[in-house]
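Exercise 3.2. Students should predict the tertiary structure of the chain below and write it as structure tokens, then compare their answer with the key that follows.

Predict this chain's 3D structure.
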Amino acid sequence: MEEEITVITEEDHFKAMIGQLEREICHLEQRYKEKEDVNVAATKEDCLELIQDHYPSTHAEQKLKLLNDISHLDDQVKKNSVLTNLDFKRVHSRIISTEVSQKHQCITVMGECCGLSFVMNFKEELGKEDTTLRVKDLDVEIDKEALGNLAYIIPCIEEKNDIQAFFTFIESFQSETERRMRVFAEHQKEFEGVVSIARSGNNLLLKINNQNPREKWSVFWNFKITSLYRVIPHIYLNIEHKPKTADAEEVTKNLSDLFETILKESGIQAALKTVVEWVVD
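Answer key:
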């Protein structure tokens, strides 16, 4: 019985080569996707470890250049962190789909601002021809109790998918919070026994100990948010009279107006000192 001989034509040969190439392309695309679906190195040490693992000793010059570039970048990041009070702990990206015209990925950013931790999750769309970055589905995890009456702004920022607005808000909030405590502490030290720091809900106030039991003097220092998402002080004088009379209410209004004028013209320090001197004298 004669053995059957299979004749491989040139067309069959090319089809086989094309099939093999297509399988290799699919394999490489999968490897590329897996490579991108990893944590972005967030520290200098992470970068150095990656370089040591992937660059052989024969590429010493390239390795040295990368190490110098990373050190320079690390210095710049530290300077920016000091200037903005924003410290990014880790950034994670995950590709969820790649289309002809766009790439979609999920981003998670973990960081803190002056001790207040936050986690941001959002979807990013980047066109291959149109390089405009589009952010969708922004979600911010943060201690809303620490934000007090300003916590309402977080859902507004999420609705607008405005990452820059969040960074502007959180940096200015922490900066103003620290300034408030520092100024109050300075006055408490300067006028020891006369003033004391107290908290009313999420608000901070400076109580001025008046010898008159029928009057209670306090300076409330709250915050409000501008249209550009910056946190600014909202300070006012509060005087409680027992019992309330028309004359007492008139005096309170006049003093409150005077306090506001001094606040605008001379600043917070001068206004607080003036109020304390009113009570002490």
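Discussion points: Confidence is low (pLDDT under 50) at residues 35-41. DSSP finds eight helices and nine strands in the chain.
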